Amino acid sequence: MDVTGTQSHGATRIKHGNERLSGWLFCMPMLVILGVFLVIPITMALWVSFSDWSGRGSPFSSHVNFAGFSNYAAVLTKPGLAQSDFGTAIRNNAWYTLLVVPLQTLLSLLLAVMLNRRILKARGFFRTAFYFPSVTSSVAITVLWMFLFGASGSINAMLSWVGINGPNWFNDPRGLIQILLGSIGISKGPSVLTQHGLLGLSWWEWLAGPSVAMFAIMLMVIFTTSGTFMLMFIAALQSIGEGTEEAAIMDGTNAWQRLWHITVPQLKPTIFTVVTLGIIGTWQVFDQIYTGTKGGPSKTTLTPAYLSYSAAFDNQEWGQGAAISFVLFVIIIVMTWIQRQLMKDRKMSRRKTAYYAAMKAETLASAQSASGLGTGQGSARSTSTGDAEHV
Amino acid sequence: MSETHTSLTPVTLRQTDEGRFRRALHSLIHGRVLLYLALAVIALIYILPFVIQIATSFKSDADAAANPVSLIPEVWTTAAYRRLFLNSDFPVWFKNSVIVTLVVTAGRVFFDSMAGYALSRLRFPGRNLIFTLLVAVMSVPMVVLLIPKFLIIKTLGIYDSYLGMILPLLIDASGVFIMKNFFESIPRSVEEQAMIDRAGTFRIFWSIVLPMARPALVTITILSFQGSWNELSHFIVSTQSPALTTLTKGVASLASGQLSAGSQYPIKLAAAAVMTIPVAVLFFAFQKRIMNTSEGSVKE
What we know:
heterodimer; A: mainly alpha; two-stranded antiparallel ribbon; globular; disordered N terminus; B: mainly alpha; MetI-like fold; 2 domains; 16 helices; 72% helix; 0% strand; flat; disordered C terminus; MetI-like (chain A); MetI-like_sf (chain A); cell membrane (chain A); transmembrane (chain A); Sugar ABC transporter, permease MsmF (chain A)
């Protein structure tokens, strides 16, 4: 007893001296790589965004001058092509985020709720089918999408079965809202909207909505992200358990009521995460644009991420490209902050709180009575699970 | 239907309860049919694109353009695949993707677990600072780093080289996180035994801790493989020579480049299909692990 005691004491002491060194040694590869390829380059790019570097030679050579805020001004305040391109990119991405985030959250929640039913057979098959698009590369999916949504592609062929003449998706720059307004005869905006604007775009252009081409990309992204978020919701649903829901079923509530009043409130933390990840992700669309549309048609699929790339690598406007990427960084931070404020646990109205409490008490009571009876579904199910375990 | 209904209804139920139960059960069965119907339709929407993709890759160009929906080619042809493998740079792209993915995956698994181990187990000055920095790093959106990465790779003189393609990808902050969390969940006693035997920290890590961490290692192996195989933007800014083009970059150039829209779809779709295969194989091999990670308590 005594011997092992001293021994382990000695060992701890030896290890303690060791730990200081090995702690740093173990972290060294990470520190070096993150430092060299993340921290230092961000500092370099920050300098470039304040310089007039043209891409030739080193950005730190003596030929490169400090340019103050001129790159930021060109993008944000000085009327011109750079500003209107940036405005267009923000417009496109804002619509994109506004539609993709709610839709992908709703769809993945819906899929998860459907798959979480205990009665469901072949759950594994459905889950695989819904998740598979998420593991494939965005390049491969974009190639596929361009075929499906081509002028004479699969989607338009299917639409023609029901007599619809589909658009030339990826070459159609018309905004969805403009199309909608056009169909009721409004083709020109009021001068209040056309005369004034922001970032080189008139309000009328801001309100045009996502173009048909952007809409096709949005469908693609929802198709590929819903599986990942579905898995997150499934995990959350399983940690909640089905107890309250079963009780509510016994109570004669319908599926819709159960979803909104029982499941969704309990999923709030997961919904928060999914929306946050959604906002961060949607403001970074790049791969799909690079592979598919390169910002066209008529710049309606241009996004800040792609604009930052093309300004620097295609047009050699390195300062502007770097400036755009830092503005984008700020946008992402601000957007997630706004979302956090909006989704913060606001005080529920008193009526709603009372309703919710009553609902809870009732489900609890009926859960007890149901388990007290010990009959029907519950016990039948538990035997079947028992069997499955034995097998 | 009504027979099962009654046989399930216990005799002890009071009248009102029975009515409730009946209604509940009815809506349950009714709901089940609807549920399967909805799921079947959605599953079809999710699967059909891939079926169309594979079917089209075996069509001729004219057939693909004329019959974009048919799942059976008029004439089966492997022309697209033959052209891809025998008359294009596709094999080079494939080779580059394999090299980069294997090295990056091996490196990430090793370095991520080393850092994760240090951050969870070793006590050393500066540990909290490192951890805080890691959290900060994780919040930087990757797409903002395109220009910065290009600048540093140019400055270090590793532009257009495997080194420039691989080095920056060798650490994945979220992988470090996964490993750290895992190491925190396993008991310390085994390591303490080894410490008594005066084994060095690295030996303890390598021959005792790592073998215990197999589940987490598999997880980050899958994530790293998938991540580096599907990586596009980093290769756009770190290379330009055709000899170093990866699948993502190459297929992207096929999609938007020289070929006019609407034509040559079989070869594009074949290329996209082939590049999906390794990830798909990995996915199906490990699907239980990928999809059940957080389902521990639930038995099916």
